[in-house]
Amino acid sequence: MTRRWAFAAHVLLGAMIGSLASPVQADGYKMATPIAPGVATPDSMDSSIGPLKLRDGFPTPETKEKIWDNLDRSRALQAYLLAIPIVNQAGMRDTLMKFGPVNRTNVIWENLVDPKTVELTANDNTIYSFIWIDTKQGPVVVEIPPKVLGTINDFWYKWVVDVGITGPDKGAGGKYLILPPGYAGDVPEGYIVVRPTTYGMWTVFRSFLVDGKTGPGVEDVRNNLKIYPLADADKRTPATLVNASGIPSNFVMPTDYSFWELLNQVIQEEPPEGSDPTTLGLFASIGIEKGKPFNPDPRMKAILADAANIGAVTARALALDIRGRDAFFYPDSKSSWRLPFFGGYKFQSQPGVSNLDGAAFYYFFATGVTPAMEEKMVGQGSQYPWTALDAEGRPFDGGKTYKLTLPKDVPVKDFWSVIVYDVQTRSMLQTNQAAPSASSQNKDVKINADGSVDVFFGPKAPEGMESNWVETIPGKGWFMILRLYGPLEPWFDKSWRPGEITLQQ
Predict the structure, then answer these.
(1) Which of 385, 416, 423 is CA-nearest to residue 501?
(2) pLDDT, tens digit, for every residue of 261-292?
(3) Under 8 Å CB-to-CB from 96, ≥6 apart: which residues?
(4) pTM for the complete prediction?
(5) Is the separation of the CB atoms in 418 and 404 below 8 Å?
(6) Which one of 70, 175, 363, 400 has the largest count of C-beta atoms within 10 Å of its C-beta?
């Protein structure tokens, strides 16, 4: 076939396909051009949202209703997933304020966190301090105590700066001057200057046990932590410590329709510069926009309620059984050990490209974003391999017994721990145990003759292994985190790796 005939056949074919897509053609008109394939839309087609009808490209009223509902529903689902970190922080802030005012109160677990505190994947190995900072009234100074490990995250849950051992003060303690967004005033010398893009932010740090006791760490915080406006720098007001140990409290965000109300609250309070136009545009498309009332009509309210339900299940699916082996520590095997930061602490598949699944999973299941929990810091920071699946890839059954073997020489400078969490609340499993965990901090943990350690999970402890056992509940799912504090090179080069969790009965 000559080139000329090939071109003519192509034009004819395009015209035939175009005639199938659009029943009305400009045949016989002087300015007619054959319509290329895919340009026109058929007057009738099937779709995942039902039959779609058009009149020469114009959707019928019935089709338009389907399209609007689908558009609003899809935008609401994406808005939900993108809003999880914001609402997570809002839930944190609201509960902290029940303990005392912002810029004054340090909620501290003097006797460690126990299951009565419903908080995303908290540990019972270190002394937590939670502080909410708000700079709407001007710069705030936080004097961080020595020998702590922590971070500051903004209201959008982005990492701002580390404090303590991995921060600019290097564990010596330091004065952190937190400035409001867009602050143009004088900045005095002698401070570690922090410039977040939101007014509200969460400061969290951990103090460490000394000879198994919390007292010295608590006293370091009590004697050294100060929070005050920069305008009152001459007073250097000590923080008010409120002990949260043993007090029933809930720091976990809601996932139902009230999710949207919390999101709107934050959007109204915070400057838009903390986010990006696309994210804020998604929020605006479903009725959440700064300076405007959030008052959805019955149709939109039903869509938002549905999107919240679907969003919560989506986040759980991403967290508990995510697609893709690149979310695992050992992707070339059947290992169930998962990465905590899928896409790094910035949740990016590559620079400038968001890893949407990684972000949705993390913010739904955890708190605290810092490079110190993700980047290679030999002998510093911490690592968090975790799993919700046994060696065969099955979810854990609270009525059965499982075993985890940690080979000898667990690569940590400080200590390791294993903690069990409730799948529903993503918080410590509430059983008869005050500490649903096993740890090298516990001097009663039994070590095998070869130096390895066996940890058991189940409703009853294997005989003689009570110190190596974490209680579970029949009929309730669970997952666990292996924490490595001060991880050493064998962890990073993978010459040491934990065993898989195997079903015993």
Answers:
(1) 385
(2) 999 999 999 999 989 999 999 999 999 999 99
(3) 102, 105, 107, 130, 131, 132, 251
(4) 0.91
(5) yes
(6) 363
